[in-house]
């Protein structure tokens, strides 16, 4: 599940936007973008790619 928090960069309709704030309305997630008064459906947003490692960790017994 994507994590939306203030300052997160998201892609909407081909342009990058910044999340202003997030709220729950009637059990629905509402994401507000900087410069927009109306909430955006989270299904219309793509998160900025994150950096992660694929290094295998060996467990000791």
Short description:
This protein has no helices and four strands. With 61 residues, it is mainly β. The protein is elongated and about 50 Å long.
User: Unreliable runs, pLDDT <50, ≥5 residues?
Assistant: none
What spatial form do the alpha-carbon principal axes imply?
A: elongated
In helices, the fraction of residues equals under 10%
* Share in β-strands: 35-45%
What is the distance, rounded to the nearest whole angstrom, between the alpha carbons of the first and last residues?
Answer: 32 Å
Q: Could you state the order of secondary-structure elements as H and E?
A: EEEE
Spatial strand sequence of the major β-sheet: 3-2-1-4
Helix vs. strand class: mainly beta
List the total number of helices: 0
Q: What number is the mean pLDDT?
A: 85
**Could you give a short account of the major beta sheet?**
4 strands, antiparallel
Number of strands: 4
Radius of gyration, in Å, reads 16 Å
Topology of this structure?
Elements: E1 9-12, E2 15-25, E3 28-33, E4 46-47
Antiparallel strand pairs: 1-2, 1-4, 2-3
How would you characterize this protein structure?
By secondary structure, the protein is mainly β. Helices cover 0% and strands 38% of the residues. The chain has strands at residues 9-12, 15-25, 28-33, 46-47. Strands 3-2-1-4 form a 4-stranded antiparallel β-sheet, with no helix packed on it. A hairpin with a 2-residue loop joins strand 1 and strand 2. The protein is elongated and about 50 Å long.
